[in-house]
Every structure is written in C-alpha cells, then in structure tokens.
C-alpha cells in the first residue's frame, strides 16, 4: 500500500514569500525524489490563490519516511519555510486506495 503525505502551506503576505517558497519547494522536490523508497515528491500552487501550496509525498510504505527524514536537506527545509508562512503547515497522512481491481459499488 502506498503511503502518502499531503502538506498544505499558506504564504504570509510579504511580497518575497511566494517566490521564495516556490523556489524552495522546487529545490526540495528535485532532491527528495531521489530518496530511497520515494515514489514521487510533488509540489503545486493553487490556481486561484497564489499563496496556497501543496506538497504530495508518495512513499513505498510508511517506514520509507525514514530515508526522507535522514536526508540532510530535511534539516534546512522548516527553518527556511516556516518564517514565510501565515499559518502552521497542515500535514495529513494517507494510505492510497488500491484501484487496480474492479469493485462493486453498493446501491
């Protein structure tokens, strides 16, 4: 079962916050995608609210996060990003549903 984290970030209203967050997220994605047992590390910006960003972290399983947390880059992320935010990051943990087989939807 694929283990997925979604993290929602909301930039503060300082004019430099949006481009700084965007650059850091792109940098992080390029680094974290290379971590062992990481399926993908996606970053996105809301099309209606440019201050809103989302990270989708996909791992082979829950224990795969250890490689992510052991990456030296991880220690640089929060100290850089947190001061640029208007509110705390909203982190949610998910197990992806298996969509590889047909299902019967109850009436």
From TrEMBL:
Residues 23-77 form the ABM domain. Gene3D superfamilies: 3.30.70.100. It comes from the Eukaryota. Pfam families: ABM. InterPro entries: ABM_dom, Dimeric_a/b-barrel. Signal peptide: none annotated. This is ABM domain-containing protein. It comes from Hyaloscypha variabilis (strain UAMH 11265 / GT02V1 / F) (Meliniomyces variabilis). The lineage of its organism: Eukaryota, Fungi, Dikarya, Ascomycota, Pezizomycotina.
């Amino acid at each position: 079962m694929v283990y997925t984290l979604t993290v929602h970030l909301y930039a503060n209203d300082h004019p430099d916050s949006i481009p700084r967050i965007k650059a850091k997220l792109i940098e992080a994605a390029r680094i974290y995608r290379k971590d062992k047992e990481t399926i993908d590390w996606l970053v996105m910006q809301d099309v209606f609210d440019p201050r809103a960003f989302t990270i989708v972290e996909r791992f082979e399983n829950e224990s795969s996060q250890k490689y992510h947390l052991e990456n030296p880059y991880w220690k640089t992320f929060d100290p850089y990003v947190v001061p640029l935010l208007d509110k705390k990051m909203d982190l949610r943990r998910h197990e992806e549903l298996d969509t590889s087989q047909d299902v019967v939807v109850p009436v």
